[in-house]
Design brief:
single chain; 207 residues; two-stranded parallel sheet; 2 strands; elongated
Length: 207
């Protein structure tokens, strides 16, 4: 089962809109002309690998993922042991009894797969919610730092072929983010919430 292991990459995708934040100053209404753009650059990869809150979120998600994996592996081992026991007793059982035991085993295996799917969805939703809260704090920080620099547009470093020294505001943004939001509690949705989300998604598809 796929786990959230490349969390920093997901953060970069989630915040690309933030990295592309623009605040263009407009001249007088009479002139109807734009002032020359002043560019600043931000490195999302550094931001989401170096900031304290990003590290905190990754650690929490990884811990939850490992707990889920341990639960699932325990059940897998139990099912494997039971299968081996059924196979070893096959010659002593009637065919109908053997098939019945195998059907019960398959039902439990299907239940485990369903549980693993719910676990993954819980992780995905928890990450989206953490990203949303982080973005809520990060957006005004980027705006404040860029305005302090006199920048009217902020570009993502990964999209730039060449830049002059002195345009990068990543360090200032990280330092401000570390002061304002060093940690963020990851909220894991309940299974009931996930089931309700699935129900709503099915209802939307049916319409």
């Amino acid at each position: 089962m796929k786990r959230i292991l490349t969390i920093s990459q997901t953060f970069i995708i989630a915040f690309i809109a933030v990295a592309g934040f623009q605040a263009v100053s407009i001249g007088t209404a009479a002139a109807q002309q734009l002032k020359p753009a002043v560019v600043a650059v931000i490195d999302s990869r550094r931001l989401f690998s170096e900031s304290l809150v990003s590290k905190d979120i990754r650690q929490q998600l990884t811990s939850i993922s490992q707990t889920f994996a341990a639960e699932e592996n325990k059940v897998k081992e139990e099912l494997l042991a039971e299968k081996q026991q059924i196979d070893s007793q096959k010659s002593l059982m009637a065919q109908e009894a053997y098939e019945d035991k195998y059907a019960q085993l398959k039902a439990r295996a299907d239940q485990l797969n369903r549980k693993a799917d719910i676990h993954q969805k819980q992780l995905n939703v928890a990450q989206v919610r953490a990203n949303r809260e982080l973005q809520r704090v990060l957006t005004p920080i980027i705006q404040k730092v860029s305005e302090k620099r006199g920048a009217t547009i902020v570009l993502e470093k990964a999209q730039i072929v060449h830049q002059q020294a002195g345009l990068d505001i990543t360090t200032e943004v990280v330092e401000s983010l570390d002061r304002e939001l060093p940690t963020l509690k990851v909220e894991l949705p309940s299974e009931a919430e996930i089931l309700e989300m699935e129900r709503q998604a099915r209802s939307g598809e049916a319409q």
